[in-house]
Amino acid sequence: MEYRLLGGSGLKVPVLSFGCATFGGQGVQFKAMANTSLKEAKRMVSLCIDAGANLFDTADMYSYGKSEEVLGATIKGRRSEVLISTKASQRMSEGPNNIGSSRFHLQESLEASLRRLGTDYVDIYHMHAFDAETPVEETLNTLDKFVREGKVRYIAASNFSGWHMMKSLAVADRYGWSRYVGHQVYYSLVGRDYELELMPLGLDQKVGALVWSPLGWGRLTGKLRRGQPKPKVSRLPLTSDWGPQMTDEYLYGVVDVLDAIAKETGKTISQIALNWLLTRPTVATVLIGARDEAQLKQNLGAVGWQLTAKQLEKLDRASQQNAAYPYWHQMQYERNQPPVKRY
After folding, report:
1. Which domain CATH number covers 130?
2. Which residues of 199-224 are buried (b: 16+ CB within 10 A; e: fewer)?
């Protein structure tokens, strides 16, 4: 397993990490992903640790806390072997203060997460969403306090826009507080919006990307192919409206190229899609999920080999998307962005 520094921090993370949203299976969205039993979860966590993929990502709102509970049970007695990433900010219960990134909500959220995980600290604590009602100063001062208390090792964000992230970094720098070193983002071969603003920001400010849904909301697993019926077992029918949208023609155009490269390399479509992400600038780790042990082993096989420059070029070209303004205009000016090299 390869390890990379997370942004501008000194923390090394594996290039493949395990996303625990499949643990718990509570509610429509998470039940559609999977309902992994504790026995299965322990086996998958052990497989990841043995492979060197020792970062496990969850969130308080995944299955209403059940995901954290299951993860905590699987790592009992093995805390020193793993890195834990969890999140707060999303609503967990009714009440005007039970949502957001206020000091009130974050203090309650962190203590609840620590109890469910069975640990006295988390390695990476994400703000799961930007809270436009709470002053950024209040959020960052609270997070800095968590770091100084030893309850949190590093802080990160998730699903921020460029100005959300830059304002937060500027405030942290102004007061000498802990700054976000990671940004958990949606990024895939069929979802490249991250490249337009957040990737250049990450390069400039040394914010590493932790990639969620790297297989395009389940579209790049190899189950969807042109002219073939859609699979009966899939989360897409239930959750596709919540995720990124695209035309079938665009999707199948990318899958056609993936299919051709799969034949050339002997790798699966999903392995190629994951490997492509690991060549991209700022990407520190890619979060893989799995319904079962077989799927996990296949995803772990996405590392230890390289795509050729020609294969990467084909994938880049097939997956290129039209940019929104002002990015399409900026792309016409050769000095607008710094040279972007692969990782």
Report:
1. 3.20.20.100
2. bbbbbebebbbbbbbbbbbbbbbbbb
Annotated active-site residue 62? The verdict is yes
pLDDT tens digits along 20-44: 998 986 654 554 555 778 899 999 9
In a domain? residue 311: yes
User: 44 in a domain, yes or no?
Assistant: yes
Cα 185 to Cα 179: distance, rounded to the nearest angstrom = 17
Distance CA 44, CA 40 (A): 6
pLDDT profile of the chain (343 residues), mean per 10:
98 97 69 72 96 98 93 96 97 91 97 98 98 98 98 98 98 98 97 95 97 93 80 58 82 96 97 98 96 92 97 96 89 71 51
Whether 134 and 101 have beta carbons less than 8 Å apart is answered as: yes
pTM, rounded to two decimals: 0.92
Please check whether residue 166 lies inside any domain of the structure: yes
Give the Å distances, CA to CA, from 6 to 31, 45, 78, 121, 137: 31, 21, 22, 18, 23
Give CB contacts under 8 A, 24+ apart, made by 313-320.
314/257, 314/260, 314/261, 315/189, 315/254, 315/257, 315/258, 315/261, 315/272, 315/276, 318/253, 318/254, 318/256, 318/257, 319/189, 319/190, 319/192, 319/254, 320/192
The count of domains in the chain is 1
- CA–CA separation, 124 vs 155, rounded Å? 5
Q: Locate tokens 């995803």: which residue?
A: 299
Residue ranges making up the domain that contains 128: 3-330
Q: 92-127: per-residue pLDDT in tens? A: 888 999 999 999 999 999 999 999 999 999 999 999
318 falls within a domain: yes
